[in-house]
Design goal:
184 residues, mainly beta
Length: 184
């Protein structure tokens, strides 16, 4: 019986030991919202040939821009790999773009305006490799929106009609941003 009384008293006292008390003046601070800015990469290295879109993750060792003193051309090389996204026109594979332009400044350039402009593209690898080249009648446009000093970036957009053998292929929605290397 004594054990029963002790157990009963312990049962009555135990809720008092675990009770949390608060005052009306206590304010509960809300959990702070995460205000860390989300960085969205709005410019990618990409292009579309026909219905195939290439969004390239760059090979940093093969992607660059530099000014070539010997012939007065800026050379922009974009090399990377695209990964297919289901339900979109983005395809998997390697993509390479080489742009040559006689400038060291920002601006809009066009072969139709007599600008010294060349754009060449290659996709795929091995036996699946396709090369698209310009000719003197190609319709090529280049817009350089950023041309920093060495260590900065060369950035812009491009479009072209390039040759695939005897066929012409539309290249559109071309975008690039590469680090500017030292002049050569």
């Amino acid at each position: 019986m004594k054990i029963l009384k002790i157990a009963f008293i312990a049962l009555l006292v135990s809720p008092m030991l675990f009770t949390v008390s608060s005052c009306k003046d206590d304010t509960v601070e809300p959990t702070p919202k995460d205000t860390t800015p989300v960085i969205v990469n709005t410019i990618t290295n990409r292009f579309t040939i026909g219905f195939d879109q290439y969004d390239l993750v760059l090979d940093e060792n093969s992607s660059y821009g530099y000014y070539r003193n010997a012939d007065g051309l800026t050379v922009i090389s974009i090399v990377g790999t695209s990964t297919a996204v289901s339900g979109t026109p983005i395809v998997s594979g390697r993509g390479e773009v080489e742009i040559k332009i006689a400038t060291t400044k920002e601006g809009s350039f066009s072969q139709a305006n007599g600008d010294d402009l060349e754009i060449e593209i290659a996709t795929g690898e091995g036996i699946r490799r396709k090369e698209y080249s310009f000719d003197q009648n190609s319709n090529m446009k280049l817009n350089i929106t950023k041309y920093d000093s060495v260590g900065g970036f060369i950035q812009g957009t491009f479009s072209a009609v390039l040759k695939d053998g005897i066929n012409s292929r539309d290249v559109k929605k071309g975008e690039f941003k590469v680090e500017r290397s030292k002049d050569q």
